[in-house]
Sequence to fold (466 residues):
Amino acid sequence: MAGILLVLLQCLLGYCILVAVRPTIQSLLQAILLSCIIGMGSSTMLFFFLELLTISLTTISLFILHGIVIIAFGVYFYVRRVRIRDLTFPLGKFPRIYEFVWIIPILILLFISAWRTYYYPPYSFDTTLGPDLVATYTVLEGHINNSVYSELNPHSNYHSTQTYYAPFVMLMQSMFRIAGWEFGQTWLAILTVAFFLYLYTYFRSQIHPILAGLMVLTVLITPELFAYTFILQTDFSNAVFFCIGAIFFSRFLSQERGADLIFAILAMSLACWTRTETIFFIPAGALLLFLRYYRMSMRKALSTSVAFLVVPALAVILWNVVFVGFYLPETSSVIKNFLFDFNNLWSRATVYLKDMIDKVYGQDEYWSYTTHFFIAVSLPCVIYSIYKKDFKGFSFIYWAVFMWMMFILLLLFIPAVNVDNTFRRGYFKIIFLMYCFLATCGLMKYLSQRLHYWETGLVLSPDEKT
Fold:
């Protein structure tokens, strides 16, 4: 019962954030799904502040904290005289019967993933020796700064960086175990289901449902990615938050709504809260914002780009500097330094790029037809966009290309980063970005228009045919 209550409180917290920010949301279902995702991330930050205040992490403190914050949101809405209709979102369109051709297999796969997450305990090496281990001792001792850091780490050869991973997964495990979920990781099933259903509703709002369902199912059946929807690690959660941030960043570029940029910054901050190296990808968005506005208004260019950089950086600083540096025992032996080796940079970068292509990108057992399908479809999409001078959706490709380049730099200068694990699982973000591009590009919108006209029996005008 306490576990279900925690899920509801997290969703309600996320819903309060959506109402307060009011990003672009097309339906009530989208609002509920986003509430689950953003509520989880925000909930972990609130829970973490209890630790910073040295308050014991128990069931009582967990629920009192969420209750206080949700009541505070209610007072805020009352003071701001928020109307009842502003607390809701439009219902949206109910799926047509032919959409269930895609919806049913998507739901079956999500059920399989959710069942495995609920039934089996965490079993990946990094998790059992890292976030889940810390979470287990957090439940026993009531604090994140527990005997894992003071007793186990100094006397173990197995621990290196796992217990110092960015804290989102560890905090979610702690909260769900405290609330009574035996293995804790049930939250991963909720996150997975909410994200893929949101992705379907987002794609469906951009292109014809037939195309939207095809793309979501293609992403979901990616072998490596699907496996990590039930293998507890930090990478899938990180990709979810990053993808949502990129989606609302793209919305801001096309609609110029400040609420979308605020929500994108929040999602990117949660992505950094999930995996620390994500902060190295954030400058891509800041740079694009600066280049977009510096000719119109230097003040706006600086304010938007600096905010996009600084707020996610605070999430990294909060854990890696404040908590690890000032709360935990001495960590100099486990925190790896940057490797400032500038010898043979070009040749080393070329080797890493070749490994990234050969060992990850070109491995069909990891990605099946996902990358091949993208290449086959994206080429005509790019040609059509250049012909039409319509570059909507290209921000997703920009993010993906920047991430490829940044991963090479990380491989060059950070010893803990490697191709076989870091880039392979980091590639989840790139897959989501690739298919977000397909769902928003001009050619897919044109094909969707043709499908809608064929479906309704309307005839295209001469301009629309081109």
